Amino acid sequence: MTTLEVSTPIAPARSFADVWLITLGHTLTHWYPATFYLLLPLIGAELGLSYSEIGSILTCQFLAGSLSGAPGGILVDSVPRKGLLMAISLCWVGAPYFLMGLTHSYWTLLGCAALVGVGNNLWHPTAIPLLARYFPNRKGLVVSVHGMGGNLGDAVAPLVAGFLLASLTWREVMIINVLPGIVMACVILFFVGGMELTGTTTEKSLHAANPTLLAKARTQWKDLHSLLKNKTLVMISLGSAFRTMTQSALLTFLPLYLARSMGYSPKWIGASMFALQAAGFAVTPIAGHVSDKLGRQRVIVSSMAMTFVVLLAMMFAGDSSAFVILVAFLGFCLFSVRSVLQAWLLDATPPHQSGASIGILFGAQALGAGIGPLSGGLLADNYGLGAVFYFLAATIVVANMFVFFTPDPQRRLP
User: Fold this and answer.
1) Domains of the chain: total
2) Do the domain assignments include residue 63?
3) Which residue, 173, 209, 301, 411, has most beta carbons within 10 Å?
């Protein structure tokens, strides 16, 4: 395998207001699933689902996302109108959650979850390369600001849903939850619907040689093998898959642990999940800025090592108030590096394949995210909910080992 050294072209200047607008859209893509995590204990109780069946719903979502990762990225690289793709993604992700609020069938839940996984693979390969290209010298910062929007959605959604559940059923909360995403899709379409990226010589040549969408997609698909020879991309994707395995299992079983082992009400579970995500929200742009100055690898390895330490402390804390305090520290360590990983990947891949590279990354992450809840569910069914936290500690160690041995190519900016 080889490592590519790439230069980042300078795109036409854009206002930083566009960054905030796209970041707000990203908030909504995370708002839906963050609410769903909080509702899972109620859904499982109403439908009589086991821990394994609860985990399998998320596994289905993430496996669908994994399978659609590379094709979704190739589609994004082939379609110039990035704003339109982001608007479509917001609607695509929201609609299945609306259907979930109406169904009483476990199998329908699985089908809707799969649709969510596919729809999510349009947003990230579109938005992340777009921001990186318009702000090449502040790539880590703008990608982290975008990631901060995800943290915001992950933090605020369970808090809001927890309070709504005091007067509404989980089905009503699920249906109401879709409305903000539809509004945001319209706003995205109106203000940045025409944003395009066709500025590099390679991209112009690709467009000239392949004037139709299908022809461009075929060319991008043939070039996919060159990305898979990039050692940096492969190692980052594998490390990120295990980090996301940790994250998805944590988000699935932490609400269950707080509800069934510690007796928390939905309101206080929502507050705990808010603390987990709010800590990551606060530190994400700092981590991105520091990675621009000191390097991506140093920031990521340090953060993952601290995640392992906090998880060990949570095991010893048990069913005590210290456990909840440690939840916030865990968010500080675990969620701050998602965007740094994405920026590092874009440092090491050609601009005209940025969508495909992010698609591969999120496909790998989706695979890890799919394995996490199902594995955690099997452990919880056989050994109790506490066993899940040992699994989390093991997966974050593996993730850190992949990152530690990843080549760190030097960027050559023009």
Assistant:
1) 1
2) yes
3) 173
Cα-atom radius of gyration of the chain, to the nearest Å? 20
Assigned token pair, 302: 């340090």
pTM for the whole structure = 0.71
The encoded tokens of residue 300 equal 């990521």
CB-based contact 289:137 (threshold 8 Å): no
Listed as own residue / partner, the contacts of 379-388 with beta carbons closer than 8 Å and 24 or more positions apart are 380/51, 380/253, 380/256, 381/50, 381/51, 381/52, 385/51, 385/253, 385/256, 385/257, 385/260, 385/261, 386/257, 386/261, 386/315, 386/318, 388/249, 388/253, 388/257
pLDDT, tens digit only, all 414 positions of the chain:
444 444 445 455 567 788 899 999 999 888 888 888 888 888 888 988 888 888 788 888 888 877 877 777 777 777 778 888 888 888 888 888 889 888 888 999 999 988 888 887 788 888 888 888 888 777 778 888 888 888 788 878 888 888 888 889 999 988 888 888 888 888 888 887 666 655 554 445 555 445 555 666 666 666 677 777 888 889 999 999 999 898 888 888 888 888 887 888 888 888 888 887 777 777 778 888 888 888 888 888 888 888 888 888 887 877 777 777 787 778 777 877 888 888 888 888 887 778 888 888 888 888 888 888 888 888 988 888 888 888 888 888 898 889 888 876 544 433
Does a structural domain hold residue 242? yes
State the Cα–Cα distance between residues 81 and 363, nearest whole angstrom. Answer: 22
Tell me the C-alpha distance between 219 and 240, whole Å.
Answer: 27
Q: Does residue 412 lie within any of the structural domains?
A: no
Integer Cα distance of 296 and 408 in angstroms: 8
Domain presence at residue 8: no
Domain that holds residue 365: 16-404
Domain of residue 78, CATH code = 1.20.1250.20
